[in-house]
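Format notes (please read before filing issues)

Several people have asked whether sequences and structure tokens are stored in separate files. They are not. Every record keeps both together, in the order shown below: the sequence lines, then the token lines. Line labels are part of the format and must not be stripped during preprocessing.
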Amino acid sequence: AGWPSAASAQPPLVVSADDRGRSWTLGEGVDAVEVSGPAAEVLLWLSGRGDGRGLSTTDPSGRPPTPPAWL
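Then the structure lines:
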């Protein structure tokens, strides 16, 4: 078996840009955390440039989880 990918350590996510009517699923699993909000806030959070304060989430902590590492 190979090295586990960084993405496999992340919870599955359903990310929605409410003002665009778009959503994306990242990862696989039945217990996906949903994160939603305006497209600009979603992009800031996903890129690691925002803390997700303007987003809604189903995460029990009330805050969006740390986004996956992209690079």
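For reference, the curators noted about this record: The helical segments are 39-46. The longest strand covers residues 13-17.
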